[in-house]
Amino acid sequence: MAIDNQELIRMYRTMLTIRRFDERASKEFRGGSGTVPGLVHSYIGQEAIATGVCFNLRLDDRIVSNHRGHGHLISKGADVRRMMAEIFGKKTGYCKGKGGSMHIADFGIGILGANGIVAAGLPIATGAALAAHLEGGDKIVAVFFGDGATQEGEFHESMNLASIWKLPIVFVCENNQYGVNTHYKYAVAGGSIPRRAKAYNMPVRSVDGNDVVAVYEGAKEVVARTREHIGPYFLEFKTYRWSMHFESDAIPDMRPKEEIEAWKKKCPIVRFGKKLLKMGVVTEKDLADINDEVMAKIQDAVDYALESPLPAPEDALEDVFSV
Ligand SMILES: Cc1ncc(C[n+]2csc(CCOP(=O)(O)OP(=O)(O)O)c2C)c(N)n1
Ligand SMILES: [Mg+2]
Question: Does ligand 1 have an atom closer than 6 angstroms to the CB of 179?
Answer without folding.
Answer: yes
